[in-house]
Amino acid sequence: MTVEKTFVMVKPDGIQREIVGNIISRFERKGLKLVGIKMMKLNRGKAETHYAEHIGKGFYEELISFITSGPVVATVWEGLDAIKIVRKIVGATSPDKAEPGTIRGDFVLCTTFNVVHASDSIETAKREINLFFEKNEIFDYSLTIKDFLS
């Protein structure tokens, strides 16, 4: 197990449904550390860069239109095996495969509006974190309360 950083984005439907706090609290309760967070509205260029692997697919234009339709909340999480842990908490992309108890299993009815995006590999996490955050927007800190209690 290694300490990793990973990227999670609450999509416009997650904000519109007012479940941002619920999503963030799931990662916090698991023990992951929030090291970066900001709300933003993606322009088409940033959205196209983020979803470059989907260019040419039938759902691409719908995806770009959706992700630029309203604000998103971009976050960076840190922890042991963070990428794998976050993906498990998020659940499968398809709502019929997402297990109850996962974010998508609890909140998603269709793949288009699947509430959240999470990096799927170390390489992807690095690329996405660098796309959405400057180096000075990622914080390195200790969890003071844990230090105090030990």
Task: Characterize this entry briefly.
The chain is an alpha+beta fold.
CATH names the topology as: Alpha-Beta Plaits
| Number of continuous helical runs | 8
Largest sheet: 4 strands, antiparallel
State the low-pLDDT regions, or none.
Answer: none
The assigned CATH architecture is 2-Layer Sandwich
Radius of gyration over all CA atoms, rounded? 15 Å
The percentage helix is 40-55%
Q: Strand sequence of the main sheet, in spatial order?
A: 2-3-1-4
Q: What sequence of helices (H) and strands (E) makes up the elements?
A: EHHEHHEHHEHH
Describe this structure in words.
By secondary structure, this protein is an alpha+beta fold. It has one domain: Nucleoside diphosphate kinase-like domain (Alpha-Beta Plaits, 2-Layer Sandwich), CATH 3.30.70. Helix content is 41%, strand content 19%. It is built from eight helices and four strands. The model has no long low-confidence stretch (mean pLDDT 94).
Produce the secondary structure layout.
Blueprint: E1 3-10, H1 12-16, H2 20-30, E2 33-40, H3 44-50, H4 60-67, E3 72-80, H5 82-90, H6 103-107, E4 116-118, H7 122-132, H8 144-149
Antiparallel strand pairs: 1-3, 1-4, 2-3
List key phrases describing it.
150 residues; alpha+beta; 4-stranded antiparallel sheet; 8 helices; Alpha-Beta Plaits; 4 strands
